[in-house]
Amino acid sequence: MATLTEAAKQPPSAVALPVRKQPKNNSKARRRLTVVAFMAPWILGLSIFFLYPLLTTAYYSLTNFDLINDPTWAGFNNFSYMFSKDPLIWKAIGNTVWLTIAITVGRVGFGLVTAIVLTKLKRASGVFRTLFYLPALAPPVAAALAFVFILNPSTGPLNQFLGLFGIQGPLWFNDPAFAKPALTVMALWTSGTVMVILLASLLDVPGELYEAAGLDGASAWQQFRHITLPSIAPVLTFAVVNSIIVGLQFFTEAVVAGSVASGSSAVAGSSLSIGYPDNSTMTFPMWLYEQGFHQFHMGYASAMAIALFLVSAIFTIILVRRMRSAGIGEEA
Amino acid sequence: MSVLEAPRSTAPKLPKLRKPAKLKSLRQQNTLAWIGNHAIAIVLAIGFIGPILFIVLTALMSDQQALTKNLWPTSWHWENFAEVFEKAPMLAYFGNSLLYAGLATAFMLISSVPVAYALSRLKWRGRNTMFYLVIVAMLLPPQVIAVPMYVVWAKMGLTGTLWPLILPNLLGDAFSIFLLRQFLITIPQSYSDSARVDGASELSILFRVILPMAKPGIAAAALFSFLNTWNDYFGPLLYTGENQGNWTLSLGLASFRGVHQVQWNLTMAATVLVMLPVIILFFLAQKQFIEGIKFSGVKG
Questions:
Q1: CB–CB of B224/B176 below 8 Å?
Q2: pLDDT given at position B286
Q3: Are B44 and A309 an interchain contact pair (Cβ–Cβ within 8 Å)?
Q4: φ, ψ for residue B15 (rounded to 5)?
Q5: Considering only CB atoms, which chain A residues are within 8 Å of B172?
Q6: CA A306 to CA A79: how far, in whole Å?
Q7: Nearest-CA distance from A25 to chain B in Å?
Q8: How many beta carbons lie within 10 A of that of residue A3, not counting itself?
Q9: Collapsed DSSP state (helix, strand, coil) of residue A170
Q10: How far B293 CA sits from the closest chain A CA (Å)?
Q11: Are residues A255 and B282, on separate chains, in Cβ contact within 8 Å?
Q12: B136, A320 contact by CB (below 8 A)
């Protein structure tokens, strides 16, 4: 039916003249239209869920805003309060910097070690890779709960294990000096994602290079230093910068671990237990959340958000530039 | 287990005067290395899997025993798992998590596949810039835009529900677009070109040529989207924290112990139940997970 009417509509003479001119413009316009149509969701998404909230956050950061009344202009008061008066801000910044560095060094270092161990195993590597990677999938809330229990000072298996060697284990999540190290141990447990990325790039290093170096009498360390490291450098950079950006957002594990370890019966993330013990696990995003959504200092929380954004942006730019120099994102 | 080295390359053997003793020591060295590597791997495996075993075993203990130093249950209490469902509305939480993760993933696929296609298989000016913007959006900490987005959703009357977390996926999810694009770019352009010569529209090329070839990539993107939403805590806390009826498993689990102070065995049973779907998902689709991660960080 359709084909019949189509055929009927086509006048037999309409073959050459109008058609010859049209394909070029037509196809160009059509191609552009295709791109726009395919990109439409993202162009909208970028505007609504990225550009708009970013600009609005910048505006709110210059106001007093409590969510109920309209924002009133405050100039740079929020920023001056942040850096000169807020009693907890430096603690929160310090904790976030501490955790970001520890988690990045721990995850990438440990991920590299586990990946290298896997490359040395011939046949069993698949099984071990699965075992090493599995914890990386654990929901952060579940991981935090499990680790508060595993690191329980008196009954947890880790301190019992240390006790075998006559070491008095620390109080971990109940000691301000050891709560952040405890979170770092937890981060090592979930470092499987970094391991898989590094393993893939280690396996991409041509074996001939090692053979040649071995014949020249290069030691294992020299081979690692002059062959392995340069080959995996781009991926290593990706892993480090990505880890830093994730570290800056560190929130869930600290909130849940603090809440559970404090024994508070309130909902995790409530003001009562946040940062337990003694604000030692209060990260910058947690303090932002507390200020914005519990104290309703939305303007101040927005100023903190802008600060967080600026720091993340620095690392994001580094990552994008590294990706460009590695050719990721250019014409394939 | 054999301790044989990989077959040596058949390079012409130079007449070397080697003492048999030295040969033996080389073989011994290899054996020692093999034993050493496997020993390290086993120790690491215990470190990785130990915590999971430990929480499973604790979940099966009696109330009293879970408070002691014992690592092995003296009596097995499988009913703990059933009791978790009585103590907290776990099924409702599970349903909410499933709704959130399922819809978010479905919406993400509908919107993100065409975007990733345009970013990887169509040539246009500004394409790279747009791709870098995807990366920038992907790395934006969620806390940065939380305040204005909360205000917007509050004005729409949707705070207290999971919709503020689900609906944005209809307009693409940055990480998923990134991952899908990394996959699609590896499919040789010749497939598309020959279809274009035949006069196929881009939409039909996407559906008939690319999608069938991109199934592993799409599976990986769907898996990660599902996993990330399933594991999400900040989002549900922000939007449904006040409204327990819409809590997800993450929220329910985080506040479980607050209510059942001394019953560590039940808390661990709840933890196991929340981990279980993720672990099952992993074993069903291990290959896609691993492939997906490789593509996210390596190939360009």
A1: yes
A2: 83
A3: no
A4: -65, 100
A5: 41-42, 45
A6: 10
A7: 16
A8: 7
A9: coil
A10: 6
A11: no
A12: yes
